[in-house]
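Section handout, structural biology tutorial.
Before the tutorial, make sure you can parse a SMILES string by hand: atoms, branches in parentheses, ring closures as digits. In the record below the ligand is zinc ion, and the chain has 98 residues. In the tutorial you will relate the predicted structure tokens back to the input. Do not try to memorize them.
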Amino acid sequence: MKIETINKLCCPFDKEDLTLTTITKDVNENILEGFLFCNKCNHLYPIVKGIPIMSPDEYREFALEKPLLEKWQKYLGDKSFENFRLTETKVNKLEIKE
Ligand SMILES: [Zn+2]
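Predicted structure of the complex:
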């Protein structure tokens, strides 16, 4: 998927802008693998083979996405993935200001 198209996407839950992390691109700079993250509701949307997975939670399968997240762990840092959302696992949660 082209980066310009991805930049137009917003979170289907709260219409917030999404933060893109690119993992792999093809020669035309299309994003093949990566993820989109909503800073408001903490939802994470994987991009697999160029397609962002943005279906409602009930149509997503955690078991299918978990191996991807494990593969991408170094890009996620100390965050863990639960119920299609990222959760902080360390003390820095207390430092987030509203
Ligand atoms: Zn959201």
